[in-house]
Protein backbone atom coordinates (compact mmCIF):
# COMPACT_ATOMS: atom_id res chain seq x y z
CA UNK A 1 0.00 0.00 0.00
CA UNK A 2 1.26 3.44 -0.76
CA UNK A 3 0.06 6.93 -0.28
CA UNK A 4 0.75 9.46 -2.97
CA UNK A 5 1.27 12.99 -1.70
CA UNK A 6 2.34 16.19 -3.32
CA UNK A 7 3.83 19.41 -2.08
CA UNK A 8 5.54 22.57 -3.21
CA UNK A 9 7.79 25.36 -2.06
CA UNK A 10 6.37 28.79 -1.28
CA UNK A 11 6.97 30.26 -4.76
CA UNK A 12 5.98 27.07 -6.59
CA UNK A 13 9.20 26.66 -8.61
CA UNK A 14 9.89 23.35 -6.85
CA UNK A 15 7.36 20.58 -6.39
CA UNK A 16 7.70 17.28 -4.59
CA UNK A 17 5.85 14.03 -4.96
CA UNK A 18 5.98 11.11 -2.51
CA UNK A 19 4.64 7.69 -3.35
CA UNK A 20 5.20 5.82 -0.11
CA UNK A 21 4.08 5.43 3.48
CA UNK A 22 6.10 7.27 6.11
CA UNK A 23 8.80 5.10 7.66
CA UNK A 24 8.95 7.59 10.52
CA UNK A 25 8.01 11.18 11.26
CA UNK A 26 9.35 13.63 13.77
CA UNK A 27 9.55 17.10 15.17
CA UNK A 28 13.16 18.14 15.83
CA UNK A 29 13.89 20.89 18.32
CA UNK A 30 17.69 20.94 17.90
CA UNK A 31 19.38 24.30 17.53
CA UNK A 32 20.53 23.53 13.96
CA UNK A 33 16.96 22.90 12.84
CA UNK A 34 15.65 25.96 14.66
CA UNK A 35 18.14 28.13 12.81
CA UNK A 36 17.60 26.47 9.43
CA UNK A 37 13.81 26.75 9.56
CA UNK A 38 13.79 30.13 11.32
CA UNK A 39 11.36 28.67 13.81
CA UNK A 40 10.86 26.41 16.78
CA UNK A 41 11.18 23.01 15.14
CA UNK A 42 11.70 21.03 11.98
CA UNK A 43 8.83 18.77 10.89
CA UNK A 44 9.97 15.83 8.80
CA UNK A 45 8.71 12.60 7.27
CA UNK A 46 11.18 9.83 6.46
CA UNK A 47 10.44 8.01 3.22
CA UNK A 48 12.42 5.88 0.75
CA UNK A 49 14.47 8.24 -1.39
CA UNK A 50 13.57 6.39 -4.59
CA UNK A 51 9.89 7.09 -3.89
CA UNK A 52 10.44 10.85 -3.84
CA UNK A 53 10.39 12.93 -6.98
CA UNK A 54 11.55 16.53 -6.77
CA UNK A 55 10.80 18.66 -9.82
CA UNK A 56 12.43 22.03 -10.39
CA UNK A 57 15.88 23.29 -9.57
CA UNK A 58 17.03 23.02 -5.98
CA UNK A 59 20.20 24.20 -4.32
CA UNK A 60 21.99 21.91 -1.90
CA UNK A 61 23.46 22.97 1.43
CA UNK A 62 25.70 20.37 3.09
CA UNK A 63 26.23 20.57 6.83
CA UNK A 64 27.35 18.16 9.58
CA UNK A 65 24.42 16.71 11.53
CA UNK A 66 24.44 15.70 15.18
CA UNK A 67 26.51 12.56 14.51
CA UNK A 68 29.01 14.47 12.38
CA UNK A 69 27.69 12.90 9.20
CA UNK A 70 27.01 15.36 6.40
CA UNK A 71 23.40 16.13 5.62
CA UNK A 72 22.47 17.37 2.16
CA UNK A 73 19.62 19.81 2.39
CA UNK A 74 17.70 20.62 -0.79
CA UNK A 75 16.01 24.01 -0.86
CA UNK A 76 14.42 26.32 -3.41
CA UNK A 77 17.00 28.93 -4.50
CA UNK A 78 14.25 31.41 -5.26
CA UNK A 79 12.14 31.42 -2.08
CA UNK A 80 14.47 29.47 0.31
CA UNK A 81 11.85 26.89 1.30
CA UNK A 82 13.44 23.61 2.46
CA UNK A 83 12.16 20.63 0.50
CA UNK A 84 14.02 17.57 1.78
CA UNK A 85 17.33 16.28 3.07
CA UNK A 86 19.42 13.13 2.68
CA UNK A 87 22.23 11.80 4.90
CA UNK A 88 25.72 11.30 3.48
CA UNK A 89 25.53 7.57 4.25
CA UNK A 90 23.11 7.18 1.39
CA UNK A 91 21.00 4.76 3.43
CA UNK A 92 18.14 5.26 1.00
CA UNK A 93 16.19 7.55 3.28
CA UNK A 94 15.02 11.03 2.43
CA UNK A 95 13.47 13.33 4.99
CA UNK A 96 10.86 15.50 3.34
CA UNK A 97 9.78 18.65 5.18
CA UNK A 98 6.21 17.99 6.29
CA UNK A 99 5.23 21.64 6.03
CA UNK A 100 5.72 21.72 2.23
CA UNK A 101 3.15 18.96 1.73
CA UNK A 102 -0.32 19.89 0.53
CA UNK A 103 -1.84 17.85 3.34
CA UNK A 104 0.46 19.31 6.00
CA UNK A 105 -2.49 20.23 8.21
CA UNK A 106 -3.03 16.54 8.93
CA UNK A 107 0.58 15.95 9.97
CA UNK A 108 1.34 14.73 13.46
CA UNK A 109 4.93 13.88 14.36
CA UNK A 110 5.57 10.33 15.51
CA UNK A 111 8.29 11.52 17.88
CA UNK A 112 9.80 14.67 19.30
CA UNK A 113 13.58 14.78 19.36
CA UNK A 114 16.13 17.11 20.97
CA UNK A 115 13.40 18.45 23.25
CA UNK A 116 16.09 19.57 25.70
CA UNK A 117 16.77 22.54 23.42
CA UNK A 118 13.10 23.29 22.68
CA UNK A 119 11.82 26.72 23.54
CA UNK A 120 10.62 26.73 27.15
CA UNK A 121 7.25 28.16 26.12
CA UNK A 122 6.75 25.51 23.44
CA UNK A 123 4.97 22.73 25.32
CA UNK A 124 3.52 20.85 22.35
CA UNK A 125 6.33 18.29 22.51
CA UNK A 126 5.10 17.10 25.91
CA UNK A 127 1.90 15.51 24.68
ZN1 LIG B 1 10.38 28.37 -4.25
ZN1 LIG C 1 17.27 19.01 14.28
In words, what does this structure look like?
The chain has 127 residues and is mainly beta. The protein has one helix at 31-37; strands spanning 4-8, 15-19, 24-28, 42-48, 52-55, 59-64, 70-75, 82-87, 93-97, 111-113. A seven-stranded mixed β-sheet has the order 6-7-8-9-4-3-10. It has a three-stranded antiparallel β-sheet with strand order 1-2-5, with no helix packed on it. Residues 28, 30, 32-33, 42, 114 line the site of one zinc ion.
Keywords for this entry:
mainly beta, Metal Binding Protein, Guanine Nucleotide Exchange Factor, Chain A, binds zinc ion
Structural class: mainly beta
**Arithmetic mean of pLDDT:** 93
Bound molecules: zinc ion
Overall geometric form: globular
- What is the overall number of helices? 1
CATH topology: Metal Binding Protein, Guanine Nucleotide Exchange Factor, Chain A
The biggest sheet amounts to:
7 strands, mixed
The CATH first-level class comes to Mainly Beta
N-to-C SSE string, H for helix and E for strand: EEEHEEEEEEE
Q: Give the count of structural domains.
A: 1
Strand order of the largest sheet: 6-7-8-9-4-3-10
At CATH level 2, the architecture is Beta Complex
Strand proportion, as a percent range, falls in 35-45%
Helix content: under 10%
Q: CA-to-CA gap between the ends?
A: 29 Å
**DSSP summary, beta strand count:** 10
Q: Radius of gyration from the CA trace?
A: 14 Å
Outline the low-pLDDT stretches.
none
Structure at a glance:
This protein has 127 residues and is mainly beta.
Write the layout of secondary structure elements.
Layout: E1 4-8, E2 15-19, E3 24-28, H1 31-37, E4 42-48, E5 52-55, E6 59-64, E7 70-75, E8 82-87, E9 93-97, E10 111-113
